[in-house]
Amino acid sequence: MLFTKKVIQRAMPIYIGYLFLGLACGILGQQARISPLEAFVMSILAYSGSGQFICIAMLMDNASLFSILVTNFMVSLRYMFFSTAMYPHIKDCSLPYSMVFAQNITDETFAVNIDSFTKDKDWDVRQGLALGFSPCLVWASANFIGCAAAAWLNPPTELVSYILVAMFLGIWSGYLHDAALLTAGVAGGLLSVLLSFLVPFKLHIVLATLIVSAIACWLEVRNTKTRKNK
Residue 209: which of 228, 229, 224, 190 has the closest Cα? Predict the structure, then answer.
């Protein structure tokens, strides 16, 4: 693992996002009677923001352990594809190193790492691991602080909703220039709202995302073939 100025610069947006998201997740965790230490350990072992939010929401709904495990398995399946895409860049590493590297892959760290491996000839696996591991510490620490602070301050749960909405709007704003992505995002949001009346345990979000993503990929493949035929 190699922490460099380059790593910090590229990971800084992730640090900021994980700080506020982690605080929000910790606040929700306290509402589900999770202790600060449990929130910290869960953030390290189950390093998945969406998975943790879903887990906490299901705990608050008194869902069974089996339902929580199956739901998180489905939500986290995308990490298998992320790890597969990352394999060519870490194939020369030992198995333990590769396992630690894979454990620290998230949506954000994957995006930054794959871009760095592709475009920066000086980017190596040590910097890649540092970029994946350091946000994990920020995330876990923010969860701990949020959970501990919530026990004393007792903030309204609605505050978390505003934080999440603001965060996702901030992320999505970077794609407003792309008509296809904008259309996919709006369609996914509308479909998620419709499915929320039919699908329990927040699975409507996952289902809407999978459906819209599949349609978008199919359209992209079809358009690519059409351009090649011309």
Answer: 190
Dihedral sign of CA atoms 41, 42, 47, 49 in order: negative
Tokens, residue 61: 């709904």
- pLDDT over 90 (residue 159): no
pTM for the whole structure = 0.70
Q: What is the 3-state secondary structure (H, E, C) of 101-164?
A: HHHCCCHHHHHHHHHHHHHCCCCCHHHHHHHHHHHHHHHHHHHHHHHHHHHHHCCCCHHHHHHH
Round to the nearest angstrom and report the end-to-end CA distance of the chain. Answer: 47
Q: Is the pLDDT of residue 84 over 90?
A: no
Short-list 142, 133, 144, 188, CA closest to 163: 142
Dist. CA 151–CA 154, nearest whole Å: 6
The DSSP secondary structure of 69-87, one letter per residue, reads: HHHHHHHTTHHHHHHHHHH
